[in-house]
Structures are given as C-alpha cells and as structure tokens.
Write a structure and sequence with these properties.
Radius of gyration: 16 Å
Number of helices: 8
Structural class: alpha/beta
Distance between the termini: 9 Å
Oligomer: single chain
CATH superfamily of the largest domain: Flavodoxin domain
Order of helices and strands: EHEEEHHEHHEEHHEH
Helix content: 40-55%
C-alpha cells in the first residue's frame, strides 16, 4: 500500500509521533506546510497527524475542505494533546467531523508534552486560562507546570490499526 503521514506540529510533539509512526510502518512523514494537496493524489493511504490544542484540531479545516479529494482513500487521523479526558477528546473530534467522516477516518489520540518555558506569550496565557477552568487536579497541574506524556508505545493501537488496513 502506498501511504504517507502528513502532520502539523507547532512545538514538536506531533512531529515526533509522526516520525516514530513513519519508522514503525515504513512510509514517509511530511510536514503539512511542505505538501501540495495534489501531491497526495498518488497515495491511497493517508495518516493525518494534528495537535488537539485548546479544543481545536488544527488540520480539521483542511481535511474537511478537501474531503472530496481524500474520501476515496484509506484515512486515519491521530491527534496529540494535553487532556486525559476521553469524553472531552471525543466531543472535540465529533464537533469537527461527521459520523460518516469518522467512520471513513478513524481517530486515535495520544498524550503529548508541554514545555511551559517554550510557549509563546499567547499560548502561555491560553494554557494558564485553561488550567484555571480545569477541574481535574492532575490535568490542572500538567497545564500549569508542563508535562511530557510522549511515549513511543502510545502509538501501539494506531500502528495495529494501520497494519490491519494495509494488510487488506
């Protein structure tokens, strides 16, 4: 199967997962900013990787806008973020994609990392604001102090799913 990983990464967590995934399944990983959409036409399998950042899936708008181009391909979406709440993650994903789109493009979520000192001023402010409204004490601590949830084994479900798709 001819596949590619297309990702967007602001601070590097999504890039790291995309590169690890590329190594695991043997397909290239390319940054979204460097890809022309018609350059994806030859691929019959696309994995999209996007941050899930403060309730927003960064690549969602592009995926939806060009769904007509992608819908005939085998698709997978992985997102990377800071929340550990599966209900919140599910709500965000369902806000961006229809049930039919999610049926055609299964979603996998992985915990990322946050290095508070590296955040730009706006992201730092937004992260502190999110921490103020977060009820979960552990998530509040993570948002205030930073965290590193990056683990290669976080990819295991995604890799397993891709291997079943590519075996068909």
């Amino acid at each position: 199967m001819n596949g590619i990983v297309v990702y967007y990464s602001k601070y590097g967590a999504t890039r790291t997962y995309a590169e690890w995934l590329s190594q695991e399944i043997g397909i290239p990983a390319v940054e979204y900013k460097t890809v022309k959409l018609d350059g994806l036409d030859p691929y019959n399998f696309i994995v999209f990787g996007s941050p899930l950042y403060l309730g927003r899936i960064v690549l969602a708008k592009t995926i939806k806008k060009h769904w007509h181009r992608f819908k005939s391909k085998r698709l997978v979406l992985f997102t990377v973020g800071s929340t550990r709440d599966p209900i919140q993650i599910d709500a965000v994903v369902k806000r961006y994609f229809t049930p039919a789109q999610l049926n055609a493009m299964p979603h996998f979520y992985m915990l990322g990392r946050s290095e508070i000192g590296r955040l730009n001023p706006l992201d730092g402010f937004l992260t502190k604001t999110a921490a103020a409204f977060t009820k979960d004490p552990e998530e509040k601590r993570m948002l205030k102090e930073g965290f590193d949830g990056m683990r290669r084994e976080n990819l295991s479900r995604l890799v397993g799913h891709i291997k079943t798709l590519t075996a068909k």
